[in-house]
Specification:
The protein is mainly α and about 625 residues long. The protein contains 32 helices and three strands. Strand 1 and strand 2 form a beta hairpin.
Length: about 625
Amino acid sequence: RTGLTDMVVTELSQSDQIRVLSTDRVYQVLEELNRLDDRITSFEVVREVADRAGVGTVLVGSVARVGEQIRISIKIQEAATGSILGAKRVDGIGQENLFAMVDELGLEVRRSLEVDQATEARQELTLEDVATSSIEAFRLFSQANQLFREAKEEEAIPLYMRALEIDPEFADAVYRLAVAFGNVGLEHESETWMQRAFDLRERFPEELRLRVEGAYYMDRDETVPQALEAYEQWRELVGRPHTTHGLLLNDLERHEEAIELLEEDIAVIPDPGYWPFVNLADSYIALGDLEQARRTIEEFLRLEPDHYQAHVTLGYVSLFMETLEDAQRELERAESLRPGDLGVLWGFAILAMLRDDWGAAHAIVSPLLESTNLFEQSAGVYGQALVLLYRGRFSDAMEPIAQNIDATQDPVLRARNRNGLASAYLAIGRPEEALRHAEKALEEATNESYNIALQLSAIALTALGDTPGTQERADELLERAEQLPSHREMRRWHHLQGELALLNGDTDRAVSELEAARSMLPPGPSFPVGHPHVPIWYSLATAHIADGEDSRAEVLLSDILDAGALRVEYPIQWVRSHYLLAQIHERRGESSRAAELYRRFYELWRDGEIDRDRVEEARRKSGL
């Protein structure tokens, strides 16, 4: 039955005159109604599904098999009244005839809905043309789809792979596999399969073809304009915006545009599901309107109170609002619905770090190291490294990251890890190691990771006195920034120019460039990670100190200390901000406040290996 459902949806989706609800959405609504396991679906349930999903016409059917004889019966009915618009029964011998039987059923549906066959753009294509000629491949595909609907992508991936071993040209299986890999964080695998889906895109109906093109183009900075164009064409074709279009606009930090699009998406779809709401909440978070972000997720939870991901998102909103007890409650609710989820664990780890409970944070992320998912493994290593850096234990933090690089086969994850190492080595004044890792990252990185590697390598080259090499990296970053329809990478370029000016002793230019970078920061955080604020604030604070502007530096350093969840990924800058702020208060003669900050700095890094001279100085000046 499941396979036939997928077949019928695939066949009918070829029509440019019929809008077909996706199988995924049908199963999602059935699950919401607690009807997913029903062996027989009453028309009352069918009507409720149709009403929730905004569907006017439904197709219901049955399949019977006696030996090799197969009979499929269908009825086409008005959802609101149950009036029968058409009916059809087809018989066949053996599973090998199923495709032809479904094609015959599709023809009857078109006749019943009075579709003009003469104007059908793809009327010559059969189900085998647009899907696969192998029943076994389609069976595996349908089984994988069912697991995908249950958010069991890691179990679905091997089935998609087996289907593609049978039929490498099974375009829909290729696309689904790309999405599945992306959902489990394996971006390189996702990109590889999305490339194949893109190459096969002419086998898709127009709506899905545009979705594939949008997903393919948005994965590459240089083709983001084509992605925006594909989603605009999809919008014109379907009559409403696509949720991923809003996701892309958020990624480009064009949040006001994303809000307008996503609010329209939610308004025109009777039952839009989770993603438009969370993407809309992301927009409000980035704009600093955390109260509206909270209301957005709560609105969705009134529709689906047991959606674990919505509780995760609400937990993060509470983290950003610094209402930690609310965050704890929402994350615990999400944990009860989806034990072991990465987003939940990461939220608990942030909570622990904000509470200075380093042992708890380490214990929370440690199980991720045993995961079979490479992305979760890397997240575990990254989490442990953050905890260790908050304690000043640099070597202990770097070693597992280096080991993870050697262990993973995913170049995207390797590049990210190398950027992390390069950034850390730069922070403690070891540009040779930083340059080595940044240069290796450039060999495998793409998009934002590549730009980060350019930034880090340019800073390292300047520290090593290689002016031509620095200029080459800076020029390349500027060229890439100017190509992206967003100020996100231009902010990175200004940040780089400020850092280079600071290294060269040009404090006036450093302040100017870093102020330009700060002006391009979003008002609020990014969800759930990747907040760009602290590094720019810290660089600008050090520039102001070098320029003798302690009062301006004080504001920035205080912002860093009070940054809450925004500072979690930047332990070195956060801990050092205590020391720099203590110095400012000491220069003013405010000895009590200075001693307090020195004491805090010492307590954090007293057992570590970073800034040992400063740590000893802080111990003396704090009176410990």
